[in-house]
UniProtKB/TrEMBL annotation:
CDD domains linked: EpsO_like
Entry keyword annotation includes Transmembrane: yes
InterPro entries: Nucleotide-diphossugar_trans
Superkingdom per UniProt: Bacteria
UniProt entry keywords in alphabetical sequence: Glycosyltransferase, Membrane, Transferase, Transmembrane, Transmembrane helix
Family: Belongs to the glycosyltransferase 2 family.
Regions that span the bilayer: 6-27, 194-215, 300-320, 327-346, 352-373
Protein name: Glycosyltransferase family 2 protein
Length: 400
């Protein structure tokens, strides 16, 4: 019975360790896109859904224009805005379309609305960018080149601007995002799995974007979109040399942001993980198989919290006379997962997470418990705009 209880946790930690191993140690030369000139100059459209982003939209457009090829179309969908988002985006040089629909709210509907407008003069490639994000120099050209040449969606490395002076909670949250969006993403794709679409910095050839299932209110619409496209045989790929970044959420809003992200992930994983694994086995499809395995693994804090809870339960069983083998096996694999996570910090995360914040991860795990209890009692279903740490300063400057 105790082997039966321990087996799922052993599997989940094994998947996590395998992804980290391939993401950290089995490193090939980082993939780089061939210049866009290899296929001519693809016509690019950058689609930005924006909801009440007046405090940052000007900066976003200005930075974007500096980093994209000339002639790139920048379309902002001002979605149910009650502020100056549309006005400021136009002043910054973007094409803007207003959308008002109080019933159908959410990023997916905004993207579908923008697609309808793009369809009148379709580009070769559409890059989706969140309104608070910055594309690295030349990343748009790289993403478009690969997407058009290989006829698949392409995901850039999506990280958060981090400073070691940030509060520990924010640092740890940013590190968790680095592990997920860089290390595990890199490891999963090296194993043959499909790249995860993370909602921003993702490029689509028009032939795929034109029919993609966009119009929905799913909190994890990016994840669901990647799953649907993978099942259609258009496996998304990860282009690490292209980058997209955003400012960290304000400390008081970090829990709200993580609640929205993780509830969306858990719902999507519950619906799709096992079907993807079964479909991958039936079709001998490594992209679907490893994507399904990836979805089985819960967010890092929940993985560690449930693993430790199971260890305590098995330790009590050993004390009462049960065989120690399930406990020892799980203890070894949880310890290895902790070592690998520290390895990810040493190799990739020291600019994101200070040593002082690292040792507070157990406190962070406890801080996340209400997120998961809320999921059991009534999960988050609303799309909530999250304030960034520097938003007040930016807003004051614009008002001046």
């Amino acid at each position: 019975m105790f082997w039966f209880l321990a087996a799922p946790f052993i599997l989940l930690f094994a998947i996590y360790i395998l992804e980290l191993m391939f993401g950290l140690f089995f490193v090939r030369e980082r993939s780089k896109a061939r210049p866009a000139a290899d296929i001519g100059d693809p016509k690019i459209a950058i689609l930005i859904p924006a909801h009440n982003e007046a405090s940052i939209i000007t900066r976003t457009i200005q930075r974007l224009v500096e980093n994209i090829p000339s002639g790139t179309r920048v379309l902002v969908v001002a979605d149910n805005c009650s502020d100056r988002t549309a006005e400021l985006a136009r002043k910054a040089g973007a094409e803007v379309v207003d959308r008002f629909d109080k019933e159908r709210r959410g990023k997916g509907y905004a993207l579908a609305f923008g697609r309808d407008l793009l369809a009148t003069d379709p580009p070769d490639c559409v890059i989706v960018l969140d309104a608070d994000c910055t594309l690295d120099k030349d990343s748009a050209a790289q993403l478009a080149s690969v997407a058009v040449r290989q006829s698949v969606p392409v995901q850039a490395t999506n990280l958060v601007h981090s400073v070691l002076e940030a509060p520990p909670v924010v640092q740890i949250s940013n590190f968790a995002m680095l592990v997920k969006n860089l290390v595990r993403q890199r490891g999963m794709t090296r194993l043959g799995g499909a790249a995860l679409l993370t909602g921003t910095g993702m490029a689509f050839p028009w032939s795929i974007f034109a029919t993609a299932p966009l119009a929905n209110s799913d909190l994890a619409e990016d994840l669901a979109l990647g799953i649907a496209i993978t099942r259609q045989g258009h496996t998304p790929i990860f282009l690490e040399s292209a980058g997209v970044s955003s400012e960290a959420a304000a400390e008081e809003d970090t829990l709200v942001q993580r609640t929205r992200w993780e509830h969306g992930f858990l719902v999507t994983a519950r619906l799709h993980a096992i079907p993807l694994i079964l479909s991958g086995l039936r079709k001998m499809s490594r992209p679907e198989l490893f994507l399904g395995f990836h979805l089985l693994v819960p967010p890092l804090a929940l993985l560690m919290a449930t693993g430790i809870a199971m260890l305590i339960s098995l330790a009590c069983a050993v004390y009462l006379g049960s065989t120690p083998l399930p406990f020892m096996t799980l203890l070894i694999i949880v310890s290895l997962a902790v070592i690998m996570t520290v390895g990810a910090w040493v190799m990739e995360g020291r600019d994101v997470l200070s040593l002082g914040a690292l040792v507070r991860i157990p406190v962070y795990i406890l801080w996340k418990v209400p997120v998961y209890l809320k999921f059991l009692g009534g999960r988050e279903t609303r799309w909530i705009r999250t304030r960034r740490s520097d938003e007040t300063i930016i807003s004051e400057k614009q008002d001046d």
